[in-house]
Amino acid sequence: MLCLPTATAFACCLVAQDVLPAPTPAALPTLTHAEISERVHAAVARGAVLLPVGKSRAGRTIEALELSANKLPGKPTILVVANVDGDQAWTSSLALFEVEQLLDDPAARALLELATVIVIPCANPDAHEQRFAKPRTDRAATGTGIDNDRDGAQGEDPPSDVDSDGMLTALRVAADDGEWIADANDARALAKADAKKGERGRWKLWPEGRDLDHDEKVAEDALFDALVQRNFPYGYVDLAADAGVFPTDEPEVRALAEFVLLHPEIALTLTYGSYDNLVEKPKTTAADARDRLVPNAGVVESDAELLVELGKRYVEITGNKAKGRGGDAGTLQGWLYAHRGIWSLAVQPWDIPLDAKDERSDELKKKLGDLSDDAKRLQWIAANPDETWRFVAWHPVQHPELGACEVGGFAPFARTEPPAARSREIAQKELEFLCTLGAELARIEIEELSARALGGDLYEVKAAVVNAARLPFQSASALRTETLRPLRVRLGLADGATLVAGSARDLERNLRGAGGRKEYRWLVRTTKPADIGLSIDTDHAGCAERRAEVK
Hints:
Blueprint: H1 7-13, H2 33-45, E1 49-55, E2 61-67, E3 77-82, H3 90-104, H4 106-114, E4 116-120, H5 125-129, E5 170-174, E6 180-182, E7 190-192, E8 203-207, H6 251-261, E9 266-272, E10 284-285, E11 299-300, H7 301-318, H8 332-338, E12 343-347, H9 362-368, H10 373-383, E13 391-399, E14 403-410, H11 420-436, E15 444-455, E16 458-467, H12 476-481, E17 487-492, E18 498-501, E19 505-508, E20 516-525, E21 533-537, E22 544-547, E23 549-550
Parallel strand pairs: 3-4, 3-9, 9-12, 10-11, 15-23
Antiparallel strand pairs: 1-2, 2-4, 5-8, 5-14, 6-7, 13-14, 15-16, 16-20, 17-19, 17-21, 18-20, 21-22
């Protein structure tokens, strides 16, 4: 595990007045796709292996970096994927930071003795580049567009910069049939009107934009609709605009899926994006719920229990409390787990914190109740003067079609890009968690192989194959889908030896974690018992060989 300086040690350094505190580490900036490519090739020059993944719909290259201390057969691999969502552009910088530390830091490199690490720094380059477009928008759709309002034209009413401030936020329009009201605790935040409580909506809420087709709908028909993170086969929603024409229609999705299929050594994936299953316990499905045609929604209970334990460690190391946004339908993470049976960890590395101190009086707390999440985010922004850019105050504009209305709300990337001063610290903690995962991956070993003489050149051969790591050889999902190859056990005999009883070859589908064990017994007639051998071959949990100990 990586060791960070303790608060006590840091305080002791400051006791001596002639010792200056260490400078604040340089921030990790959000990089363009071209800058990412430069860093990727710089890592290749220093020893990383470049693996092609594919190209985006616009022709941008998707690349992976492979890092390993040794390339042993069956060595387990961790796949790290950043910014498959498209609007999580900063996570590409986080992934490249991890690559560079794995190349430079001896403590981090210890992970590479246990596992190969493959990093895809930017899985969705077209959406990533929108981070640098003008006006700025965190819209992540880059795929096939449709005629959303069914008016015979497609893409004629996209979001646009009505107030010319260089960014796209939200537009609220006063309406008698509106759905939104001001948050009771903070009028800058909006809340859905609850008719059961007698609340009457005051505004309609739209993306910032025009009503160019004069259908009284604003910015409802963008040029692109399909999202990479809704186009994977798992949970695919037919006919949904953001899901694409059919599963894997988006070139990025097809490329990522084929890359995974070509690398059966992948034992676990860690994805940085907007979905989370470590901070918050994932939705589960019962162990006996089974449908071979369509995978069950949710994580099998036994697998979820292991994710919860890993999640506790993640929170302890990183301090991250961001629970993520949205479900896993159509996502890479969902497909990896439910269709391929691969352990899939997902985190949102940062979001505006919800734990700012509540400065309201006890009377107001009692009268108005708990703060909404948006009100908590606004409290955090108010408490951090350098972060005021994250919310654009509502301000009046004269809309060309709608007349008087207001523009404002959370700024693009306000909830995905951490404060510059904390960016490197966040990345360091994410790396520290990553480095703990190598020891958790299933690793099959031959614990015993013995040959005991029974007389007349007849020997009883015993073997024990074990998995001492926390994770089982296959997840419960993999056992259902039957997508991963079982471990292969082979008894080797010298020339002239005869197998009297038992099978020389065996396939074992699973060994549980934390001491899973399979014992074997054979009868062999031989004059060379010391030449009896056993070999184990796996795709993703190592390989092993051993000679018999003659007793």
